[in-house]
Amino acid sequence: MQHSKPPRIKRNTRWWNSNWFDVAQLAAFSFGLVWLTVNGANQMGYNWQWYRIPKYFYEIIDGAFYWGPLIEGLFVTLEITAYGIVITLTVGLITALLRMSNSFSGRLLASVYLEIVRNTPLLVQMFVFYFVLGPILDINRFWVGVLCISLFEGSFASEIIRAGILSVAKGQWEASYSVGLTKTDAYRFVVLPQAVPLMLPPLTGVIINLIKHSAIVSVIAVFDLTTQALDLIAETFMSFEIWLTVAGVYLVMTITLSVFMSLLERRVNQRS
């Protein structure tokens, strides 16, 4: 008995929904952005000096290798980001648990923190931390910047974590208690494994914002990537080259993080 092959379904893909059209749009946008930048600089009579940029990444003097100011600033930015991610997620988790707790004082404390942090500018918070809380608590400017950015991003992370936990069906909690699990074990073995895959995409956005917002520490003279760029521009007047280079470095960091988080999300979904 011969089995006939099932008919092939021909997909009627519109040209504007194809991947090639997306690539063409990106190429056109990139070309337009480059053209506007170059054309604007030429109209200003700007003298491009890209050949001077590499030495701000590294130098070899008398056979010895030295990192340039942009790489030194990048190390500080990465350090701020690493500490910031840990503190942001910790603050976010604690705040989310307080919001869902039965403690009136805990819910009030979490609500006051969220309303104050989310409804005031980050720049104002940085100045309050630096000029008020820093001297009172004897915190240096580096940790002032880390704590301020972390508390700011933690307020958004807390709502993401709370929404992820609340998305788990009530029956999952009841099933956990019915088999004798404590509330802590229910969180650990039942709730969080289901909630984490839902949290990862929006938390990725929070962490990317943390990287970008780390540039604000330049206002309190922390020598991160942005501060080093400002100093170089004051010395060399190469505004276009340095700012475009710094923007490219930030773009590489955020895209790398996005790819890593996408791989992590895929792995978590496969395990769940």
Describe the structure.
It is a single chain. The protein has about 270 residues and is an all-alpha fold. The chain has a single domain, classed as MetI-like (MetI-like fold, Orthogonal Bundle). About 75% of the residues lie in helices and about 5% in strands. The protein is built from nine helices and two strands, in the order αββαααααααα. Strands 1-2 form a two-stranded antiparallel ribbon. α3 packs across α5, α4 packs across α5 and α8 packs antiparallel against α9. It is globular and about 75 Å long. The model has no long low-confidence stretch (mean pLDDT about 90).
Main traits of this protein?
MetI-like fold, single chain, 9 helices, 272 residues, mainly alpha, two-stranded antiparallel sheet
CATH topology: MetI-like fold
Give the name of the CATH architecture: Orthogonal Bundle
CA(first)-CA(last) distance: 42 Å
Strand order of the largest sheet: 1-2
List the helices and strands and how they pair.
Layout: H1 19-43, E1 58-61, E2 64-67, H2 69-99, H3 104-118, H4 122-137, H5 141-166, H6 170-178, H7 183-213, H8 225-236, H9 239-271
Antiparallel strand pairs: 1-2
